[in-house]
What we know:
Layout: H1 7-45, H2 52-55, E1 58-62, E2 69-73, H3 79-84, H4 99-104, H5 131-152, H6 162-189
Antiparallel strand pairs: 1-2
Helix pairs in contact: 1-6
Amino acid sequence: MSIQLGPEWQQFNTRLQGTPAQMERDIRRTLGQSLLWIEADARMMAPRDQGRLKGSINPKITGTYPNLVGQVGPGVTYGSFVEFGRPAGAKMPPASALIGWVRRHWRPAFIGPIPRGQLRPRRTAGRNVTEDQVLARAWAVARAIKRRADRAGRAGTERPFMRPAFHRNLPRIEQAFARIGLRTVAYLAGTGQRL
């Protein structure tokens, strides 16, 4: 009894040999698209002051097939404090890190009642504001952040933007990766197109 393999076997063997390279390209493309979905939503949800946090959110793919790793997140150092907050019991943030924020969000002392329908005035620190006054307010804000964290038993500055972006896109990401498997099976069976 003899078994002969026809041209179908050669075609299958050729497809099988090319599958790892094709799968790497498909996984890298799908992983990149997934990171872009998360990045776009995280940029929309990121708290804004000057836009540095939003602008620092970038994706990165490292590793080689089959151990590809996709990462997306902020590149500024304070991004993790915004996402996760400061732990309860931690030292208060340095007042020097808050000086720029205080200058941009200076609210002058307001005496008397605010007329109905009018918002409290908000403007940058004027010329008559001294550096000592700005530093004193920055110190007070830093102390308030620490107290809020200690009182709540958790982060006083927590404003998540990465985790919600990930969870919002998780169903799309899972579907995109499931399609890779379907395309691979169809390609190996000879019924589908190249990956």
